[in-house]
Amino acid sequence: MTRQQIGANMYLTYVPSEKFKTSFLSAQLAVPLRRETAAPNALLVNVLSRGTARFPDMTSLGRELDMLYGARLEPTVRKKGEIQLLGFAASCIDDRYLPSGERLLEPLTDLLGEMLLSPALQDGHLNAGYIASERENLADLIRSTVNDKRSYASRRLIEEMCAGEPFGIGRMGAAQDVEAVTPEALEAHYQSILPRARLELFYCGSAPEERVKGAFVQAFSTLPREGEIRLEPALRLPARPEHRVVTEEMDVTQGKLCIGCRTECADRPANMIMNAMFGGTSSSKLFLNVREKLSLCYYADSTYYWTKGLITISSGIEPRDYDRAMEEILAQLEDLKNGVWADWEFEAARTSIRCALRSVEDSAASLEDFLIGCGVLKDAGTLEELKEGILPVTRERVMAAAAAVQPDTVYFLRGREA
Amino acid sequence: MSIKEYPRLGEKVFRRQLSNGLEVVVVNKPCHAKSYAFFAVRYGGMDMRFQLGGQWQDTPAGIAHYLEHKMFDSETGDVMQAFAKNGASDNAFTSSAITAYYVTCTEKFYENLRILLEYVSTPYFTQESVEKERGIIGQEIQMTEDDPDWRVYSNLMGCLYKDSPARVSVLGSQESIRLITPQTLYDCHKAFYTPSNMILVCVGGMDPERVTAEAEAILPRESGPAALRDYGQAEDPFPARKEARMTMEISMPMFLAGYKCHPPAEGEDHLRQSIIGDMACDVLFGESSPLYTRLYEEGVINGSLGGNFDLLPGAAYLYVGGDTKEPRRVFEEITCQARRLGEQGISGTFYQQIRRAAQGQMIRSLNSFENIAVSMTEGYFHGYDYYHFPEIFDSVTKADVEAFLRENVTECRAAFSLIEPGN
Question: Which one of B81, B254, B349 makes the best mutation probe of the A interface by having the most chain A beta carbons within 10 Å?
Fold first, then answer.
């Protein structure tokens, strides 16, 4: 694996691999996550995805991808800490499985470059029809997150807990912000970020490095480069003194209880193990005690956001069990703080993290996500450093990590009173 | 043990049938960090009526899934914890025709394999644990009631089929699961969890000889008799009902249309039919199809429109759906386009384009260990080698896809399930 600068504010991460049937490519612009720009950014990649100067509509673009043996090219919008990544991910059958020496890397890399640099234009401007329809689709998509109540509740928790911080903004921005973007504003925004945003490129597959580098340099040779948008690490705030409870009612039979906590403990390996023991795996305390033993929750798990210092808990409960579920969930955390656990719980957590880190290398998409994250986030560390960091974590470090976890916001979604 | 190489796929496969009837398949992937074991039973949600010891038995809806849940209990403790201690992640699923248990790990593979083989072959149910599970599965059923994707699908199946167990949810209902007892679970385990009705697929760098040795040491020496199954009378090709509608708290109308297709054949024809059905979907409403691009460009559909061709025991159907403000219009346009393609034919250049994409898609799917294991399992249960797909794919013609559309995707075979926003 290598990462090298191949142009001004432009980096290529190259991973040689022969274990996949496909090659994976990606081109991502990295910009700060901000309320004013999150929605235009998300809309922009969706508009760009509609076509290029050479393939200006879905029919011609779809035909080109089909002819490249069903190559995939998808707009991606992600949130990494308080950085927004926008761009395209592409994949195609690796040359080794193609009939008679056909090559897909070069044409697909070209197409990837064209998606960002050479959009389909109408009278010299971004296509107004594409903007109108993608604006509507994106707003609908953001609103449709309400359909899946489990992820909706988790998202609402983050919105409420981090209101006023960039992290509280959804990766695609808010539906009403998307609807407010005019064609003129979108075009001006495009012209403004393209020359200044960091460009992160990624390849994983069987082609040699020089060939890959050549293909990317060629495909992005017309990228304007002028100035630079600085990327800052995420804000880390202390928890509010008394946790706040937000309750919403919807037409649901099962309640969703989400608890958001903050930690000022910066010991990432210890936090990872603590979270795995708490609710990160199926051998965790939340799973075994709150779900299995007490049958209080249909599901109960926890997530650690290292970039922000957050631990969030997500559970599905009978609304009448609210108080007991709260109490039992927090009691598990208290046990971790006091070192109340069996040796195997600690071992299982450590093993599960080690295995999860190893498995990253078994999927090109996970590698891309992890390595681009390393590229844009300060203090991200490498995969190797993380693996090594897990080993020396002690019981005391886990207890200290648990002691630093402070509830900040509770979000409860329940059915309407009859 | 047979070793077979598939040069068009870059794959190598070891196979052996043990003397107890268990099929063992090892797909060699030496470069991956993870190892994967998948242990499957030819038994699913649709297998509700079967013969055991000369007696026909009717079992409650949802029992295969209930049994799957209960298999995780053992006399010595919880299976999930044993895996978790080894850093392995395990899971299971029950579909209409298959129950499968699987584990992924990056270390202690043979130990994990032994746990897998042992717990799936050793039933252990108590009145108390079976009782407790009722609450958990009851919650799972309740959760699906809040899930619009699930509702739109189960309503569609209720429309398409009159008597076939395809219309019954794999989870069962609150009422049906009340009838499940330790004894019914033991009976079902005995009838179906027998080596000749099962397959073990491992994917990774493991040693095939050692895999078979572990399986021989742990599993019973002999199989029980094969259980006869009854899926009810063959259904006519028309849906039981044309339409189902309900309202839920969602942001946009959601629909799913289904077309009742010819029931599946066995052997390589099963795979062939599945390839033809998938290609019919691509041609009809795939992302590069004329219909999809037109409706998308007109703003009628968004990226959520999609569907598939699904083969069940004794039943097959093609479904398509998504979120749209004009669900009825999209449904009508799809049916109409299928008729046009069936009558006037698919353009030759468009067919070649779709064919190339489909070829790439099949190779791409071999990136996933789970896809490999599921496909190998379906192949074995239906009597074909899944890795023959390039050759079978080569034999499919444009005329096959046109005939499929003409015969199956018609107004009289269609049913429509709709969920509208509201309280």
Answer: B81
pLDDT > 90 in chain B, percent = 89
Domains B2-230 and B243-421 share a fold: yes
Q: Residue A37 falls within a domain, yes or no? A: yes
Q: What is the CATH number of the domain that holds A143?
A: 3.30.830.10
Q: Nearest 5°: phi and psi at B257?
A: -105, 145
A288 and A201 co-located in one domain: no
What is the average pLDDT score of chain B?
Answer: 95
Please state which CATH class domain B2-230 belongs to: alpha beta
The per-residue pLDDT for A105 is 96
Per-residue confidence band for B29, with pLDDT thresholds at 50, 70 and 90? very high
Confidence of residue A252 (pLDDT cuts 50, 70, 90): confident
In the prediction, which pLDDT does B332 show?
98
* Residue A254, pLDDT score: 87
Tell if the CB–CB gap between A148 and B147 is shorter than 8 Å. yes
Domain membership flag for residue A230: no
The pTM assigned to this predicted structure is 0.91
Q: In this structure, is the dihedral angle defined by the CA atoms of residues B203, B207, B208 and B213, taken in order, positive or negative? A: negative
Q: Do the chains contact at B248 and A251, CB–CB below 8 Å? A: yes
Q: Which domain holds residue A386?
A: 244-415
Indicate the helix (H) or strand (E) that contains A4: strand A2-7
> Across the A/B interface, how many CB contacts are shorter than 8 Å?
162
Residue B271, pLDDT above cutoff 90? yes
Same-domain check for residues A175 and A272 = no
What are the structural domain ranges in chain B? 2-230, 243-421
Assigned domain for A239 exists = no
Q: Is B128 exposed, middle or buried (0-12, 13-18, 19+ CB in 10 A)?
A: exposed
Residue B412 has pLDDT above 60, yes or no: yes
What six digits make up the tokens of B397? Answer: 């013609």
- Give the tens place of pLDDT for each residue, A53-96: 999 999 999 999 999 999 999 999 999 999 999 999 999 999 88
**ipTM value of the model?**
0.89
Digit-coded pLDDT (tens) for B41-60: 999 999 999 998 889 999 99
pLDDT score of A418: 52
Q: Do A251 and A334 sit in the same domain of this protein?
A: yes
Q: Are A9 and A224 in contact (CB under 8 A)?
A: no
Average the pLDDT over B347-361 and give the result. 96
Dihedral over Cα of B279, B280, B283, B286: its sign = negative
Instruction: Mention every residue, 6+ apart, whose C-beta is less than 8 A from residue A400.
Output: A265, A267, A270
Cβ–Cβ < 8 Å for A196, A227: yes
Both A331 and A194 in one domain: the answer is no
What tens digit of pLDDT does each residue of B79-119 get?
A: 888 888 888 989 999 999 999 999 999 999 999 999 999 99
Residue A298 has pLDDT above 90, yes or no: no
Structural domain count, chain A: 2
Distance CA B165, CA B170 (A): 9
What's the rounded Cα separation, in Å, for the pair B47 and B64?
Answer: 8
Compare CB distances from A347 to B85, B142, B146 and report the shortest one's residue. B85
For residues A371 and A375, what is the distance between their CA atoms, to the nearest angstrom? 6
Q: Which chain A residues are within 8 Å of B323, Cβ to Cβ?
A: 140, 144
Element (H, E) at B27: strand B23-28
Same-domain check for residues A114 and A20:
yes
Annotated catalytic residues of B are 68
Provide the shortest C-alpha distance from residue A103 to chain B (in Å). Answer: 13
B146 and A252 within 8 Å at the Cβ level: the answer is yes
Q: Per CATH, which fold does B243-421 belong to?
A: Cytochrome Bc1 Complex; Chain A, domain 1 (3.30.830)
What lies within 8 Å, CB to CB, of A217 at 6+ separation is A6, A7
A406 closest CA partner among A244, A261, A246: A261
Chain B residues touching residue A144 (CB < 8 angstroms): 250-252, 304, 323
Is residue A340, in this structure, part of any structural domain at all? yes
